[in-house]
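Incident log, support desk, overnight shift.

02:14 A customer reports that sequence design results differ from what the structure should imply. Their input is reproduced verbatim below. On-call engineer (initials T.W.) acknowledged and began investigating.
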């Protein structure tokens, strides 16, 4: 009988299909099962490892679902007050211009409390990357309506759906900042399918590469589900996202190399 040599002898480099990046720590993530945050974290970590910039990267996270990101990525991290991550990232980048600096923000943070910080950092063209997770609600604090909540979309503070006459229109932050002269690369992606994950990773990599080339600000929006806040299963929430979020927040590049896509 052949001797059982163990799993370590079987898992060789030539047999390895996938392994966890060393930039991720071993701590168990607190995100709800099926949430897109965990996938987005992994993609950022993989890009950092592949670019070999782990020691030169600083992340900034404010209040929200991502507040504990420092537990999961083995890089230097800085906490920021709610909505103020772009301002903090601006200070870090100006003090240490050779560092790769990024913010990781939800829509309640970036498009509500932090609207001013986001717009002015984009308009100034700060040489940072902003990763923007949009699930259409305040995910961490109870599923309240956010500036990005769709018309008719129910939340804990709009139980009958968002009414344009009472609550105004949803805010397309990504299209808005794409108009500003300081943004170099603006794109919207998703992480709910293998194909979308590959596109999102390519976008994240591009945002870091642009920073190396000192091209200005890159913003990558990731439209995500919030199955707990939406009161759905992960499968149903991904289906609802594709059917309802994508028509209003369509995935794809909006601005490339400082020029709006489809415009001369």
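02:41 Re-run completed on a clean worker. Output:
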């Amino acid at each position: 009988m052949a001797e059982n040599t163990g799993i370590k002898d079987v898992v060789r480099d030539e047999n390895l299909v996938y392994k966890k990046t060393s930039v991720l720590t071993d701590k168990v993530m607190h995100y709800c099962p099926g949430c897109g945050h965990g996938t987005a974290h992994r993609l950022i970590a993989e890009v950092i490892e592949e670019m070999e910039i782990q020691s030169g990267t600083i992340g900034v996270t404010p209040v929200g679902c991502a507040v504990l990101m420092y537990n999961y990525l083995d890089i230097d991290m800085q906490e920021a007050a709610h909505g103020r991550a772009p301002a903090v990232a601006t200070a870090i980048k100006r003090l240490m211009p050779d560092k790769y600096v990024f913010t990781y923000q939800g829509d309640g943070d970036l498009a509500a409390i932090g609207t001013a910080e986001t717009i002015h950092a984009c308009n100034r063209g700060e040489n940072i990357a902003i990763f923007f997770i949009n699930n259409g609600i305040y995910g961490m604090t109870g599923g309240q309506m956010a500036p990005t909540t769709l018309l008719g979309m129910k939340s804990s503070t709009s139980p009958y759906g968002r009414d344009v006459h009472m609550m105004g229109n949803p805010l397309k932050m990504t299209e808005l900042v794409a108009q500003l002269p300081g943004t170099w690369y603006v794109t919207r992606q998703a992480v709910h399918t293998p194909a979308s994950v590959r596109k999102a990773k390519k976008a994240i990599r591009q945002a870091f590469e642009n920073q190396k080339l000192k091209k200005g600000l890159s913003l990558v929006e990731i439209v995500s589900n919030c199955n707990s806040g939406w009161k759905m299963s992960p499968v149903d929430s991904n289906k609802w996202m594709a059917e309802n979020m994508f028509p209003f927040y369509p995935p794809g590049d909006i601005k490339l190399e400082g020029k709006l896509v489809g415009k001369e």
